[in-house]
UniProtKB/TrEMBL annotation:
Keyword Aminoacyl-tRNA synthetase: no
Family annotation (Gene3D superfamilies): Winged helix-like DNA-binding domain superfamily/Winged helix DNA-binding domain (1.10.10.10)
Official protein name in the record: LysR family transcriptional regulator
Keyword tags: DNA-binding, Transcription, Transcription regulation
Domain named HTH lysR-type: residues: 1-59
Xref: Pfam families: HTH_1
SUPFAM superfamilies in alphabetical order: Winged helix' DNA-binding domain
InterPro entries recorded: LysR_HTH_N (IPR000847), WH-like_DNA-bd_sf (IPR036388), WH_DNA-bd_sf (IPR036390)
DNA-binding keyword on record: yes
Family listed: Belongs to the LysR transcriptional regulatory family.
GO MF annotations, alphabetized: DNA-binding transcription factor activity; transcription cis-regulatory region binding
């Protein structure tokens, strides 16, 4: 038996003294209200209304049960209100701080169409992980090795001057090649993670570059300034290079990519974000979208 529905019909009819008016106030047909009240009477073991009169008059038992029924209905309504608030509460989501404001705004619009509200918290990789661990956010887009990620963003080297080659080989920066020894590769904070940084460092060592020729920047702005004002390279995605007005080329010795996935307090939250917002998140990250993602 639907106890809440039966009590709601009972309270509504008792307050209006009529099965017809009470059913209308409860937004149910009068026969449904009658059946629910009859089921409640059977469940409780006694009559709630005196049916010998034209009005819906409470029996002594009905008067005794009415306060409890009201409390149950009020509690149910409070629970429904709380559930609605919980559904509308924004999902606090930690995102890479390299995501463009416009792309995040478009993602928010897409999420709202699917009944989700997002509250973005841009942060570098380690901070995103900490925000999730400390439960300051419900979910985070985290960096993972490319083969473990749900999204992948190819990386290459970008420079202020357009390279004359289609692919940039790290070994061409080795000392002894004209002024190549003074050229550096800058790693931005988003890529200061072992599965990207360490692989590039190994290529540096194999190619015979000096230690300082691959440097980790404390901020993307600083790294971009170094590159714009010199012949240095920035390790970045093709989209970032375009935003910064740089010329992008793939690397020759190693294929590097940012891998991303969603980590969340619950598996349901993570899966919902992956399934419903796959393309929107991909745009924010600079990952391939739609048919390109399958290539």
């Amino acid at each position: 038996m639907d106890m809440v529905g039966a009590c709601r019909a009972f309270v509504s009819v008792s307050e209006r003294g009529s099965f017809t008016l009470g059913a209308a106030a409860a937004h149910i047909p009068q026969p449904v209200a009658s059946r629910r009240i009859a089921a409640l009477e059977k469940h409780l073991g006694a009559r709630l209304f005196d049916r010998s009169t034209r009005r819906a008059t409470l029996t002594p038992f009905g008067r005794d049960m009415l306060p409890s029924a009201r409390r149950l209905v009020q509690l149910a309504e409070a629970m429904e209100y709380d559930a609605e608030r919980a559904r509308l509460a924004p999902v606090r989501l930690a995102v890479p701080d390299i995501c463009a404001t416009r792309d995040l705004a478009r993602l928010d619009v897409e999420a709202r169409r699917r009944g989700l509200r997002l509250d973005f918290h841009p942060a570098p990789p380690e901070r995103r992980t900490e925000l999730l661990r400390s439960q300051q956010v419900r979910a985070a887009i985290t960096g993972v090795p490319q083969d473990e990620g749900y999204w992948a963003v190819p990386l290459g080297l970008a420079s202020a001057a357009e390279p004359r080659v289609r692919t940039v080989y790290v070994e061409t920066l080795r000392a002894g090649r004209a002024d190549a020894a003074r050229r550096r590769i800058w790693i931005q904070p988003e890529d200061d993670v072992p599965h990207i940084r360490d692989r590039l460092m190994r290529v540096r060592d194999t190619a015979g570059l000096r230690a300082g020729q691959v440097a980790v920047a404390t901020a993307l702005t600083g790294a971009a300034a170094e590159v714009l004002g010199s012949a240095d390279f920035l390790l970045c995605s093709r989209g970032q290079a375009a935003e910064l007005g740089l010329h992008w080329r793939p690397t020759g010795e190693v294929s590097l990519a940012r891998g991303y996935d969603v980590a969340a307090a619950t598996a349901d939250d993570a899966e919902r974000l992956r399934a419903h917002l796959r393309d929107g998140i991909a745009r924010c990250l600079g990952a391939p979208v739609g048919p390109e993602a399958a290539e």
